[in-house]
Design goal:
eight-stranded parallel beta barrel, about 15% strand, alpha/beta
Length: about 290
């Protein structure tokens, strides 16, 4: 089992001292990856329903420091040696795909191939409006952008023609190592599961539980088979912060593994860099070390 730290670019972790301290602490503790979270802006007022809480609202009102994900990934990769940096998840339909392909390829090259590009369709219509992106077409544009970026990363002079994006003879250099950047599809809807089966190197159903994951995983697998892909090639990541408690961790980790999960990400219990660094070290000693030995 792999372990990641989620929301690793939020609050004090969006600033240089906290970001570097926690990234290095996670790496030393044996965490495999750091995951960012993503919002370009958060409108002061919004009617859109936040899908990860019962009341449909984000947990914090007011401005939330949150680093821009590609800038953060580049910085964190420069101050670490082995840990992967992951956008978790970047709202791809808010970005221009050709520019994002260039940014991602650059980070992948500078990091020695340690970038994972987690992407999702997004939920906050007011944010789309603020950045001048169309909310209604976000799903088709997400699919198209994934295909276009992969074409740019793997072709000397790339041609692409879609409903929302097209280019001819586009030469992107440097290309990422092995002409590939892993793309993880975020979302715990059936639609997201199917998108992961069809297009993803991985899938991150952030709200899935051990009870809800199997049906979603079958939807993912069915779509993968329909696209002539092996579902086993789609790496599955879940979020479960209950395993911060070492006494409960072993059985929970084993249960997730039995459901085909490859990685568990944990949300920080505190954003204080000193306290979080200590918690990461303890988790590494009491959980990660025992799982890997």
């Amino acid at each position: 089992m792999k372990f990641g730290l989620w929301y690793a670019a939020v609050g004090p972790l969006a600033f240089p001292n906290g970001a570097v301290q926690v990234a290095r602490a996670a790496e030393a503790a044996g965490f495999e990856s750091l995951w960012s979270g993503d919002h370009i802006v958060i409108p002061a007022e919004y009617a859109s329903r936040y899908p990860y809480s019962d009341n449909g609202r984000m947990a914090v009102d007011g401005p939330i420091p949150m680093a821009e994900v590609m800038t953060w990934a580049s910085h964190i990769a420069a101050v670490t040696a082995t840990i992967r940096v992951a956008t978790g998840v970047l709202v791809l339909p808010q970005r221009e795909p050709v520019l994002l392909a260039k940014q991602a390829a650059t980070v992948a090259c500078l990091s020695g191939g340690r970038l994972t590009l987690g992407v999702g369709a997004g939920w906050l219509a007011e944010e789309f409006e603020a950045v001048g992106a169309d909310f209604a077409t976000r799903g088709p544009r997400l699919d198209e952008a994934i295909e276009a970026m992969r074409t740019l990363w793997s072709t000397d002079a790339a041609d692409f023609s879609g409903e929302h994006l097209s280019f001819r003879g586009a030469q992107l250099a440097p290309r990422p190592p092995a002409d590939h950047i892993p793309i993880v599809i975020g979302g715990d809807s059936v639609r997201a599961a199917r998108r992961a089966g069809r297009l993803g190197d991985g899938w991150f159903p952030a709200k899935a539980t051990q009870a809800t994951l199997p049906a979603l995983a079958e939807a993912m697998a069915a779509e993968a088979r329909a696209a002539d892909r092996d579902p086993a090639d789609v790496e599955v990541t879940v979020s479960d912060s209950s395993i911060w408690q070492p006494a409960d961790a072993a059985a929970t980790i084993a249960a997730w593994a039995d459901r085909g999960v490859d990685r568990i990400v944990l949300s920080p219990r505190t954003l204080d860099p000193d306290k979080l660094s200590d918690q990461l070290a303890t988790f590494g000693t009491e959980v990660i070390h025992h799982v890997s030995h």
